[in-house]
Amino acid sequence: MLELVSLSKKFGSFTAVDNLSLKVEAGDIYGFLGPNGAGKTTTIKMIATLLKPTSGNVRINGVDAHDSPDSAKKFLSYVPDQPFLYDKLTGREFLLFVAKMYTMDELEAEKGIEEASEVFEVKPWLNKRIEDYSQGMRQRLVLAAALVHRPKLIVIDEPMVGLDPKGAETFKAHIRLVAENGSAVFMTTHQLSLAKEVCNRVGIIHNGRLVYEDLMAVFSGDGVASLEKKYIELTS
Amino acid sequence: MLKHLVRTKLHLLYLEGGERMSRHLMRSVFSFLTFALFAYLTFEVVKFTTSYLILEAKVGLFVFYRLMALAFFVFFAIISVANVLVAFATVFRNTEAEFLHTLPIKPVEIFLSRFLDSFLYSSALMLILVLAAVSGYAAFFKDPVTAVLGIFISILPLILSAACLGAIILLLALKLSKQISIKTAVAVLSLVYAGGTYLYVRLNNPFRLFTEVMKYYPHIDRYLGVLDPKLDYLIPSFWSANFFYFATTGNVTGAALSALIVCGVAALLFVLMLRLADKYYQEAYWIAHHKLFERKVANSGEVFGGAAKKRIRPISPFKRDFLMFVREPSQMFHFVIMIVLIGVFLFNLFEMKIYLPDTFIISSAFTLIFAFNSFLIVSLAVRFVYPMISLEGESIWLLRSSPVRPATLFYSKLLPSIVLLSTIGIVLGYAAPSPFKNFRGLVPESIAYGFASGIIFPSIAMVFGGAFVDYREKNPVRIASSHGATVSLLISLGVMVILSSIVFSKAFRYFSFHADHQFDLSVAWILGAIGVCCVALARFFGGRALRVDL
User: Which residues of B touch A12 (CB under 8 A)?
Assistant: First the structure.
């Protein structure tokens, strides 16, 4: 579903992402880990077609994301760490806007909004303006918007920002369900426990290079501790 | 898709308008009154100027409409340059644009929706003023209301052409910046703009044209196209003014042809802009985003690297504002451009020699120079001082939760602005009388006005920067072209008109009896009183904004 082929991004003499190759298949939840400044956000921005790679390719469902961005983005949902919302719209209007951008018809849109808003428990707030939402409620709405058109690939930068424990649990449960239904999820997080809990594959990036990649299942037993050990060993 | 995008934007505009009326009634009423008053002033000024030039000065219709062409050219150039700056902030460096780029929308549709957004965002004042100016012009000719609307609509293609030209230049500059550095691209563009303006003004010297036209006296209302520089045919503003000339003289064919050219050029530029956007916008967006990220990478290195080398000292709010200012390219770029403009203006003032026989006209010329000086300071104040409080942004919590007094923070913003702008005011004040014979006696008063302008106008900008504070907007260009900034500009221009009328009366007395002229202390009192009032109001509104509930 997502394929990064020898992806590199340079800013002047600085190499932010260096020859990165990885694959995320349908049904995978890929945890993309790394310290601050390792190149996670640059990679994600290249996947979301906000940055053009210096070399290499991003393929989404087989479509080159930078040669045919419009076609590639039909399969994609992107949730940035600081998402944009139209404060003056209501939650429902925002979701309807997103649905329309993905060319959903009215019936599909209404169904998608109903499901997504129910899952993330934003339904009672849908008719209020977004400017009245709390930080957590905004994050729930953004996650609902990401799922409304049933994307094949979901790219999330730090999904837990602002979520309360219940919201976090809902997210974990639902993201697993989304993957079970055949979508691929690519997410970055600094919470190793979250990665351990929901991801089935993990990659660690350090200084722009993918220094580790494996199935999460290799960290058995007290998985978080061994993942943390591995992470610190590779990024120190 | 585009239809839905535009409909959502219009819906948002409506919602924002509605919110203003319900929640900020006072602010809305005040804004409305300011707009209305300024529109009325514009109406009267245009009506008076038209009447003066045609009936009193008897310049003839041809010269009148060539002066109109000159004004249209300035208008055209200002809109296109402003659109380069506003479009960069709205079409490229904007969180909404970033959001839209992650959706499966064609880049050209994103471009068009952002272009319309930037056009509507900063055009409200301009359209009101154009309508008022058109009404003033039509009132002189006793045209019916339908004609006023017709004239107003006839100017819209000119505005659209200028905006499209700005966007085209921006797209090409970003595309070009892949081959050459962005600084070189900007330098080339600035040179092209400055060179074009210089060439136009040089070729269209109104004094020379007036002398040439007078050779045909008494047929000075006739169309004397032979006197027009051929270069003018390439500029839409020339055809716009021609349309007005032919419409007034009843030449239907000439008017229709001119209107056709103006509309044709607008359509052509609009289509060209869309074609270029279709081809280059995605690429240009990536380039702009790359530059933004590149700077982030460079800045992060600088901050940590710099701290390791230098002795670490606490940073005052003033130093923080200064560092943020010099590290924001759009701020520095505009500031340098404005300082260069002031330098060019000063150079011209010292070079210029004005010999006019009539005391009224010579006093008007001096007042005009003073008004332009003030306008430069007003522009600097609205562009750089107005956004200062809003730029505290989402980090206001840091200051609100720290033991720093809002007054300290407020004065750390206002005082440096006053020091800088009053220094510029003094220099401009010193230079203002130099083109006139026997000018020395005017210098002290002129300096006093310049100094006072440097206190009054940044304070007014701070008053409205506080009253219309928007901590969510991070982009200084968008803050400086917001609704509140427009009100600030209008009020400043209103004060500028009052100061200009005082200056005119003083200059008139001086040029009538300059032999026994002495510095008038009452001037200092008046300026001092206005200055103190403005600072006090700035303190009130600015301080209140820094204490607002978050």
Answer: 294, 297-298
A&B contacts, CB < 8 Å? 83
Q: How far is CA A60 from the centre of its chain?
A: 13
Sheet holding A209-215: strands in order across?
A76-79, A153-157, A184-188, A29-33, A201-206, A209-215
Count up the domains in chain A and report the number: 2
So where are chain B's domains?
1-291, 313-550
In this prediction, residues A115-125 reach a mean pLDDT of: 84
DSSP code at position A220: -
Nearest by Cα to B171 from B78, B285, B79, B269: B285
Domain check: are A40 and A5 in the same one? yes
| Interface predicted TM-score of the whole assembly (ipTM), two decimals | 0.80
Task: Among A135, A150, A165, identify where a domain stops.
Answer: A150
Distance CA B213, CA B208 (A): 9
Mutate to test the interface with A, among B102, B111, B286 (most CBs of A within 10 A): B102
Alpha-carbon gap, residue B147 to B138, rounded angstroms: 8
User: Within a 13 Å sphere around the CA of B396, how many CA atoms are in the beta-carbon half?
Assistant: 23
Range of the domain at A95: 83-150
Residue of B nearest to A37 (CA): B297
The backbone torsions φ and ψ at residue B505, rounded to the nearest 5 degrees and listed phi first, read -65, -40
Using DSSP, state whether B219 is helix, strand or coil.
Answer: coil
Chain B positions touching A87 (Cβ under 8 A) are 472
pLDDT digits (tens, 9 = 90+) for A130-159: 888 887 888 888 888 888 888 899 999 888
User: In this structure, are A90 and A36 located in the same domain?
Assistant: no
Measure the CA dihedral B462/B463/B465/B470, to 10°: 140
Q: Give the model confidence (pLDDT) of B413-455 as tens digits.
A: 999 999 999 999 999 999 888 887 766 778 888 898 999 999 9
Nearest Cα neighbor of B36 from B135, B117, B118, B119 is B135
Distance (Å, whole) CA A190 – CA A50:
22
Are A98 and B103 in contact (CB < 8 Å)?
Answer: yes
Q: Are residues A145 and A224 in the same domain?
A: no
How close B547 comes to chain A (CA, Å)?
A: 21
